[in-house]
Specification:
The complex is a heterotrimer of chains A (506), B (434) and C (145).
Chain A lengths: L9 E5 L9 H5 L5 E4 L4 E4 L9 H5 L5 E5 L12 H13 L4 E2 L14 E3 L20 E3 L8 E4 L2 E4 L7 E3 L3 E3 L9 H14 L3 E2 L16 E5 L8 H6 L2 E5 L10 E3 L6 H7 L7 E3 L9 H14 L6 E6 L4 H10 L4 E5 L8 E2 H6 L4 H15 L6 E5 L5 H10 L3 E4 L1 H7 L21 H4 L4 H25 L5 H4 L6 E3 L4 H7 L2 E2 L5
Parallel strand pairs in A: 11-21, 12-13, 13-14, 14-17, 17-18, 18-20, 20-21, 22-23
Antiparallel strand pairs in A: 1-4, 2-3, 5-19, 6-22, 7-10, 8-9, 15-16
Chain B lengths: L3 E8 L3 H13 L5 E5 L11 H6 L14 H4 L2 E5 L3 E5 L4 E4 L4 E9 L3 E3 L12 E3 L3 H13 L8 E5 L3 H12 L3 E6 L11 H13 L3 E4 L3 E7 L2 E7 L4 E3 L2 E4 L3 E3 L15 E2 L11 E3 L4 E4 L6 E2 L4 H15 L12 E6 L2 E7 L9 E7 L4 E8 L2 E8 L5 H10 L22 H8 L7
Helix pairs in contact in B: 1-7
Chain C lengths: L2 E4 L9 H9 L6 H7 L9 E5 L2 E5 L8 H5 L5 E3 L6 E3 L9 H5 L6 E2 L6 E2 L11 H4 L6 E4 L2
Antiparallel strand pairs in C: 1-8, 2-3, 4-5, 6-7
Classes of the chains: A alpha/beta (506), B alpha/beta (434), C alpha+beta (145).
Chain lengths: 506, 434, 145
C-alpha cells in the first residue's frame, strides 16, 4: 500500500537551460532518483527517493541540479515542526522504530559556540607559530603520582617506571567507526591518515581487517560488547585497547549490523558467520559491576604484557562523572567520554536525539571530579562527540581534555553530506556502505589526502590560537579554564563548566 | 656509365622500401642508403590511386612521406631507374640501363604487378590496369581528353576483388556507368562470405553499379582500334569504352628468376626477412612467408604486413635483430560508403569452423567470428567496425576465448570482456603488434 | 613519456571524462553551448567501457610500437617528435580505417564531423589531459611508467 502521508523531504530543481542531458546524475544516484527519458530526450527526477546527499549536484558538470528542502510548507508552528510531524506520519504509515544515522541534530544548546577564547595583549605577548616552536605533542596514558629521579653522570635520569603511553603528534584522533558500518576504503583512509599524521585511529567494534594490519601500530582496537574480532593477536598488534562500554549517540542500547551487510570480508574480520546479524548487546555480559570492569582491564593488560594503555569509552550520561571516576579507579589508563552529538551508523532517532548529555558539560564535570579526587593524573581524558572545527578542539582542551576523537568531521572531510541515511547502506559517497558498486566512489588515496589536509589545517589553526593566547605548548592550555569565558550562559551553566562569564577578568 | 657502390641498396619505393629506410635508421643513422625505383614519383601511397582517379584528392596528398624524407634520412634516391637483374655471387644489381651497383646489403621490395588473364584482344586502346599512379593518371587522361561525352560512358571492370571494386568506385565518382565482372560467385570472395558479399553488392547496386558474378571476360571488342565492348563467357555482350583489368596481382620476381634466391610464388623469406642468398632481403608484396593462422607459406600483399616486413628487414640489414610479428591477411576499406573490415580467415565456411555471427540486413551491419579450437582465426565487420582492432589482437595472440564467446556479439564487447591479464598488457602501453 | 592509465578499482562509469573530452575538442569549448549547438558532431576521444561492476575508460595508448602508424596508408598517423604522442594529421587522413583495424585497444573511432580517424591526442596543449583533471574519483592518472 502506498504510504500517502509520507511526502518527499527534498525538492530537486533542474535548470533546463543548463542541463545538457549528460546523464551523470542518472548514473550516480544510488536511489535511482534521476532517469533519462529516451523518447523525449530529457533527464527527469523523482523527488520521492531523494535523500539530500548532493551527489548529483556535486558531479553535475554544469551545475544544473539543485537540491532544496521540500517546498511543501506547513503552517508555521514552533512546536510541531515539520520534521516532528513527518516522524509521526512515518510511524503511522510504517509502524516501527524511527531510525537515523550520524549525530543528534536537534537544536539543543551548543556550548562550544557560547565559549570564547582569550588572546594576549600587552603583557604575556602572543607567539608567532611560524617563527617559534609550538608544541602540540600529547601523551595519553597513566601519569605517575610522583616521579623519582636519580643522579646519572653529570645530570639526572628517571627512576620511576612510566606506564605505557600513546605518543600523539597532534591532540586529535579518529574516533571509533567499525568496519561494517563504514566501507573498507574509508577505514583504510582513516588508518593511513592517522599513521601519516602521527596520531591514532580507532578500529571500532568490527575487528581489524587484515589489510589494515600494516597500520596497526597507529590503531586503537576496541573490545566491545559483541567482542567481534577479539583475540590475542588482535590485541597485541595494536597500539592500545579500548573497552567500549557506551557510545554517545545511543547510550544504554547496543548495536545491530544487519545480516545483509555481513559479507565474506566482514564475516572474516568480525569472526561471525556470513549473513548473520552482528548484534552487540547493551551491556557486556561479563561486566555488571565496576569490579567486573576492573577484572577485564587487568585481563587485557595481562594479555598485552602491560605494554599498551587500556582505555575505557563511556557515553556521557547524567552521572558520567561518577562512572568516569569508577573507571579510573578500576585501572583505566585513558577514559574516553562520548557526548550526545556523537555520530552512529544506525540508531533509533528518539535515543539519538534525547539520551545523553552534551560533551562540553560532561567533560567539565569529569575533569572537575577527577581533580577533586586527586586522581586526574591516573588517566588521560579523551573527549568525543561533535567536534566541528579547530576552535571546538581548543576549547575542549581548555576545559580539561587531553585529546579529542573526531568522526563526523572526518567523514565530512571524505565527502559525507550528512544526509543521515547511513542505515540504508546506500551511501552515495562510498563511505557507509558495503555495496561493491557504491564502495568504488571512495578512492582511499583521495580520502586519505583529504583527511590529512583536514588534520593539517586544524593543526595550523590550533597553533595560531595557542600563539594568540601566548601559549607555546598545548600542555599549558590543558584544563586551564582561565582561557575560557562564557557568553550568554546562565550561572549554573557557568558553574558546571567551571568558567567565568565574559567581561570578568582574572 | 658510372658504376655505383651502396652499403644499403633498396629496390622499390613503396611501403616496404620506406619502412626499411626507417628501420635501418633506428640502428644506423649515418651510412647512406641508395634506393632505385622504376616509377619516377616521390614515394606515394599506392592504395590512394583510386582516390586520385576519383578526383577526391590532388597530387600533393598522394605522397606517403614528406618531400624532405629522402634528404632527412640520408637516402640517395634514383627514381625512374629500373633494376634489371641481380648478380648474387658478386653482390651486384644491374639496372636496365646496364649500370652496376655493388651492394653491401640488398632489399628487394619490388611489389607486385597486375596479372592479365587470357582475354582475347586485351592489348586494345582503352584497356587499362589499375595498379600504380601511372595507371590512374592514364585512365584519367583517357576519360577527360577523349571526345566521348561523359554521359553514356560505360566501363567494365574485370575482377571483383578490392582493386577492382576501388576502381569501380572511382569511375562511378567520375560519372561513368560501371559493370563489374567477377569469376567467383560473389564480390570480394577471398575475404567475404556470401552473406557479407550480399550486403556489399546491395550497396554497390544502389550506387548504380551492375554486377556479373560467376562470369568472366572472354573477348574485348574494338572499333577502329579502340575498345567498344566486352564479350562475357556466358555470352552477354556489354558495350563499353573503357576496360579495367583487376583480376589479380603477381609478385615481381622476374629479376630473381634463375638466381640462387629461393622463390615460389614470391621471394621466400625467413622470420628476419632474409632470402636464401646472403646479404639479400625481401619484403612487401613480393615476399612470401608463413601465414600465422594457417601455417602455410604464402604471399600476403597487405599494407601493414608490408610495412612490418620492411622495417624488420631494415633493422636486420643494419645489424640489429628483429623478427617478423604475426602475418595474416586483413583488409579495411569503405566500399561505396560501407565500412568493411576483414581479418584472417574471415570467409571460412561454417562447415569447417565454428562460426558466430549476427546480421542486421536493414542496417547493413554484420559481425562474423570464425573460431578454431576456441581461438579466433577470422573475423568480419561491416558497418560496425569499431573495436575490430581488439579482435585482431586476439587473433594474433591466439587467445583462448572459450569464456568470452557469448560476449563477442554484445554491444558492450570491449577490453573489459577480456581476461584482466591480457587487458592490462594492452593498457600498460607496451603495444601489441598485429 | 607520460600516458593516461585507468584504475579499474576507482572508475565509477560516470562518464565525466567523455563529457570533458568532448567539450575540450568542441568548437565553442563551452559545455552548455557545445552540447546545444554541436551535439551531432561531438565525439569523445575516449570511451568508458561498462559492464556490471567493472568500468574503465579506454583511450589511445600512444604505443611505443604503434600498429596504427605502421598500417596508415597515407602516412597521416605519425608520432609527434616533440611530445611523443601518436597523432593523426587529419588533412592527410583518407578514412580507410586501417588504423581501426589494427588498434589492439580499439581506441580509434570514425570521426563524426569528417571522415577521418578520431582518437586521443593527450591534450598536448594542456598541463594535464582534461579527462584526468576532471575525474571525480581520480580513477585516471597521467604518469610515466
Amino acid at each position: 500500500m502506498r504510504k500517502w502521508l509520507v511526502q518527499p523531504e527534498f525538492d530537486i530543481t533542474r535548470d533546463q537551460e543548463r542541463c545538457i542531458q549528460c546523464q551523470v546524475c542518472v548514473r550516480q544516484c544510488a536511489n535511482d532518483v534521476h532517469e533519462y527519458d529516451d523518447e523525449d530526450g530529457v533527464v527527469c527526477s523523482e523527488n520521492a527517493g531523494c535523500v539530500g546527499c548532493h551527489r548529483c549536484a556535486t558531479l553535475c558538470p554544469t551545475g544544473a541540479v539543485k537540491i532544496n528542502q521540500s517546498k511543501l510548507d506547513f503552517r508555521p508552528n514552533a512546536y510541531w515542526t515539520p520534521s516532528i510531524i513527518r516522524n509521526v506520519y512515518k510511524q503511522s504509515e510504517g509502524g516501527g522504530i524511527l531510525l537515523s544515522s550520524m549525530g543528534n541534530d536537534r537544536p539543543f544548546r551548543n556550548y562550544w559556540d557560547m565559549m570564547v577564547l582569550n588572546a594576549s595583549q600587552v603583557t604575556n605577548p602572543s607567539i608567532d607559530p611560524l617563527r617559534e616552536p609550538m608544541e602540540l605533542t600529547t601523551y595519553l596514558g597513566r601519569k605517575p603520582d610522583r616521579i623519582e629521579v636519580e643522579k646519572s653522570g653529570n645530570g639526572f635520569s628517571l627512576k620511576t617506571k612510566l606506564a605505557p603511553q600513546l605518543h600523539l603528534e597532534i591532540p586529535i584522533m579518529f574516533s571509533a567507526m567499525s568496519y561494517g558500518s563504514i566501507s573498507l576504503n574509508a577505514a583504510t583512509a582513516l588508518a593511513r591518515a592517522a599513521m601519516e599524521m602521527g596520531t591514532f585511529a580507532n578500529s571500532g567494534e568490527g575487528g581489524l581487517h587484515w589489510s589494515l594490519h600494516p597500520y596497526a601500530e597507529n590503531m586503537i582496537v576496541q573490545v566491545a560488547s559483541g567482542r567481534f574480532g577479539v583475540n590475542a593477536e588482535y590485541l597485541n598488534r595494536s597500539a592500545a585497547v579500548e573497552i567500549k562500554i557506551g557510545q554517545g549517540a545511543k547510550p544504554g542500547i547496543g548495536g545491530h549490523l544487519p545480516g545483509e551487510k555481513v559479507d565474506a570480508s566482514i564475516s572474516e574480520t568480525r569472526m561471525i558467520p556470513e549473513g548473520t546479524d552482528a548484534l552487540s548487546p547493551a551491556p557486556h555480559h561479563d561486566i555488571y559491576s565496576i569490579e567486573d570492569l576492573r577484572q577485564l582491564i587487568l585481563a587485557l593488560k595481562e594479555v598485552t604484557q602491560n605494554t599498551k594503555p587500556v582505555s575505557v569509552k563511556i557515553a556521557a550520561v547524567h552521572n558520567v562523572a561518577a562512572i568516569a571516576s569508577g573507571c579510573v579507579h578500576a585501572g583505566a589508563d585513558i577514559v574516553a567520554i562520548d557526548g550526545f552529538r556523537g555520530g552512529t551508523g544506525a540508531a533509533p532517532t528518539m535515543i539519538r536525539d534525547n539520551v545523553g548529555i552534551p560533551t562540553e558539560l560532561a567533560l567539565a564535570a569529569v575533569d572537575e571530579r577527577l581533580r577533586k579526587e586527586g586522581i586526574r593524573n591516573r588517566a588521560s581524558l579523551v573527549v568525543a562527540g561533535g567536534f566541528r572545527c579547530s576552535a571546538d578542539i581548543v576549547k575542549a582542551i581548555a576545559l580539561g581534555a587531553d585529546a579529542v576523537y573526531i568522526a563526523t568531521s572526518a567523514l565530512v572531510a571524505m565527502g559525507c553530506h550528512l544526509c543521515q541515511k547511513c542505515y540504508t547502506g546506500k551511501c552515495n559517497w562510498g563511505i557507509a556502505t558495503q555495496d561493491p558498486y557504491l564502495m568504488k566512489r571512495l578512492n582511499p588515496d583521495v580520502a586519505t589526502r583529504r583527511l590529512i589536509n583536514l588534520l593539517r589545517s586544524w593543526e595550523l589553526e590550533i597553533k595560531e590560537m595557542l600563539g594568540g593566547m601566548g601559549v607555546n605548548a598545548i600542555e599549558s592550555l590543558r584544563g586551564n579554564r582561565e582561557h575560557l569565558r562564557g557568553v550568554g550562559l546562565d550561572q549554573t551553566e557557568l558553574e558546571t563548566l567551571g568558567i567565568k562569564p565574559a567581561g570578568m577578568g582574572a | 656509365m658510372k658504376n655505383d657502390k651502396a652499403e644499403y641498396l633498396i629496390i622499390g619505393n613503396s611501403t616496404a622500401a620506406i619502412s626499411a629506410v626507417e628501420g635501418i635508421r633506428t640502428i644506423d643513422k649515418i651510412t647512406p642508403i641508395m634506393l632505385v625505383s622504376k616509377e619516377p614519383y616521390h614515394t606515394y601511397s599506392r592504395p590512394l590511386i583510386s582516390s586520385l582517379l576519383a578526383g577526391k584528392l590532388n597530387e600533393e596528398k598522394m605522397y606517403y612521406r614528406p618531400k624532405e624524407f629522402y634528404e632527412e634520412n640520408g637516402v640517395h634516391e634514383q627514381l625512374g631507374v629500373e633494376a634489371g637483374r641481380i648478380d648474387v655471387q658478386d653482390n651486384i644489381v644491374w639496372t636496365a640501363a646496364n649500370q652496376a651497383i655493388t651492394f653491401g646489403k640488398l632489399l628487394i621490395a619490388t611489389g607486385g604487378s597486375p596479372s592479365i588473364p587470357p582475354i582475347e584482344g586485351w592489348k586494345t586502346n582503352g584497356v587499362f590496369t589499375h595498379m600504380c599512379w601511372n595507371d590512374a593518371q592514364t585512365i584519367l587522361n583517357y576519360i577527360t581528353n577523349n571526345s566521348f561525352k561523359h554521359d553514356g560512358l560505360t566501363a567494365v571492370v574485370v575482377g571483383g576483388g578490392l582493386i577492382g571494386i576501388k576502381a569501380a568506385e572511382a569511375l562511378c565518382a567520375r560519372g561513368l556507368h560501371v559493370v563489374i565482372v567477377e569469376a567467383a560467385d560473389r564480390m570480394l570472395s577471398s575475404c567475404l562470405n556470401p552473406a557479407a558479399s550480399q550486403l556489399v553488392e546491395e550497396t554497390m547496386r544502389e550506387a548504380g553499379v551492375e554486377i556479373r558474378c560467376g562470369n568472366t571476360a572472354e573477348r574485348i571488342l574494338n572499333a577502329n582500334g579502340v575498345v567498344s565492348g566486352v564479350v562475357l563467357k556466358k555470352g552477354e555482350i556489354i558495350p563499353a569504352q573503357i576496360i579495367i583489368i583487376a583480376a589479380g596481382v603477381a609478385p615481381n620476381i622476374d629479376m630473381v628468376k634463375g638466381t640462387a634466391i629461393g622463390v615460389d610464388r614470391g621471394i621466400l623469406i625467413d622470420e628476419c626477412c632474409r632470402t636464401s642468398a646472403q646479404d639479400i632481403y625481401a619484403a612487401g608484396d613480393v615476399a612470401q612467408y608463413k601465414d600465422t593462422i594457417t601455417g602455410n607459406s604464402c604471399v600476403i600483399p597487405i599494407f601493414p604486413n608490408a610495412f612490418r616486413q620492411g622495417r624488420t628487414a631494415g633493422i636486420n640489414m643494419a645489424g640489429g635483430k628483429a623478427v617478423l610479428p604475426a602475418n595474416f591477411a586483413m583488409n579495411s576499406a569503405e566500399i561505396f560508403g560501407l565500412p568493411v573490415i576483414s581479418l584472417g580467415l574471415a570467409a571460412a565456411s561454417a562447415e569447417n569452423f565454428e562460426v558466430i555471427e549476427k546480421i542486421n540486413k536493414t542496417e547493413r551491419s554484420y559481425k562474423r567470428f570464425v573460431l578454431n579450437n576456441n581461438c579466433i582465426v577470422g573475423a568480419l565487420f561491416i558497418s560496425d567496425i569499431e573495436r575490430a582492432g581488439i579482435i585482431a589482437g586476439l587473433i594474433r595472440e591466439k587467445l583462448d576465448i572459450t569464456k568470452i564467446k557469448e560476449l563477442l556479439l554484445t554491444n558492450e564487447f570491449g577490453l573489459l570482456s577480456l581476461p584482466a591479464e591480457y587487458r592490462k598488457h594492452v593498457v600498460r602501453g607496451e603495444g601489441i603488434e598485429v | 613519456m607520460k600516458r593516461i592509465y585507468a584504475r579499474e578499482a576507482y572508475c565509477l562509469g560516470c562518464r565525466l571524462c567523455e563529457i570533458n573530452c568532448m567539450v575540450k575538442h568542441s568548437r565553442s569549448k563551452k559545455i552548455i553551448k557545445a552540447f546545444r549547438k554541436e551535439r551531432d558532431i561531438l565525439q569523445p576521444s575516449l570511451q568508458v567501457e561498462n559492464s556490471g561492476l567493472l568500468s574503465f575508460a579506454v583511450q589511445c595508448r600512444h604505443c611505443d610500437d604503434a600498429p596504427c602508424i605502421d598500417a596508415c596508408i597515407t602516412g597521416a598517423m605519425h608520432r609527434d617528435s616533440k611530445t611523443g604522442a601518436v597523432v593523426c594529421d587529419e588533412s592527410r587522413c583518407a578514412g580507410c580505417w586501417s588504423c581501426i583495424m589494427v588498434c589492439p585497444a580499439g581506441a580509434i573511432r570514425r570521426g563524426k564531423e569528417r571522415k577521418v580517424a578520431s582518437k586521443c591526442d593527450l591534450c598536448v596543449a594542456e598541463k594535464m589531459p582534461v579527462c584526468v583533471a576532471n575525474c571525480p574519483n581520480e580513477a585516471l592518472v597521467y604518469e610515466e611508467r
